[in-house]
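agent> Task received from the user: take the single chain below, predict its 3D structure, and emit structure tokens. No templates, no multimer pairing.
agent> Plan: (1) validate residues, (2) run structure prediction, (3) serialize to tokens, (4) report one or two observations.
agent> Step 1 OK, no nonstandard residues flagged.
tool_call: predict_structure(input=
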Amino acid sequence: MIASLITARSLIPAVPVVALIGAAPSYFWLWLSIRVATLPLPKRWYHKLEQCLCWGPYQRLFMFFVEGLSGVEFRVYGDIPEKKDPVNGLVIANHQSTSDTIVIDSFAMRLGNAGYLHFFAKDELKYVPLFGVYWHQHGLIFVKKGQNDIERIRKQLQDKKKNNIPMLMVLFPEGTRFNPENTKAIEKSQAYARSMGYPELTKVLTPRVTGTNLFIEELGDHLEKIFDLTIAYESVDGKMVRPDTIEFLDSVKTVHIQCTQREVTKVGEEKGWLYDSFLDKEKALVEFEKTLQLSDPPPPSHIYSWSAFRETLIPVLYTSLLCSPLVFSSRARKLWLQTFLFVPVLQLLAKPFWK
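)
tool_result: status=success, residues=355
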């Protein structure tokens, strides 16, 4: 019996993977229909529809499984934003694991902005079967390590502003994940801090200002707020951890989020504000390692776990309806299989022409 329970628990992470991949072809054809139908229309119309009918529901479907299966509690400290739809903003955060994007998904969902998240992503991800082509069309900014094309990124940001696309852009200013075992990255970060005349950091990496300044410079008054997040993870045995996605589902008890809202206009006038922000994160994480608190305990209204059930249930029902033809139609099942077989081949053939 115990062995059966252990085996069943080990299969828990497979549930969201199977559900999300299984629903992907249905979402792919819905997205393609929207893309074709809106070609003669202003670009904003396309983004509004795909955010409401594709990206938003799929993100909330993802969070339905992640929050429901993990049972993780979220504690939000500091300056909590009111729910508003949409908020054009920039989210900056410390980066320590793949789970950081899950936390930001949860934060955005409660802000009412799950459909408006935009990320930087590794260039290789745009070739992921089915997902890559959609991520590209949604507006993710793909970058090659060490070969970032600033002018291309600048044009993409200008296009978002010109077409008034609702967005909550996510940026990790450290450039890579903080890992205490990656001494090379830490030494490089500390050398950069010394070259800039800043104290060395030990719990985060020294932030790179180029990307953040580029966003603020190009998006300007298109941004309403900057949400400055400090993220920390508490394990079930009461320790500070840096979990990957599987560990998040299995071994994280509480996620702690410190939120500071910043005015874009004021930030532009403050030299060194980004480093000061990460110095504050450093101090908070040093304290967290001792006390498992980022600051004074948050009020009960800022503590939640799977409290967005009502928000995620509708996307689950919506996805079930979207996938229902697979149950009743052999043609739909055939198309589902052909999508998995042939779309990746087309992506591969288009790779030499896809910049």
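agent> Step 4: summary for the user.
The first helix runs from residue 2 to 10.
agent> Done.
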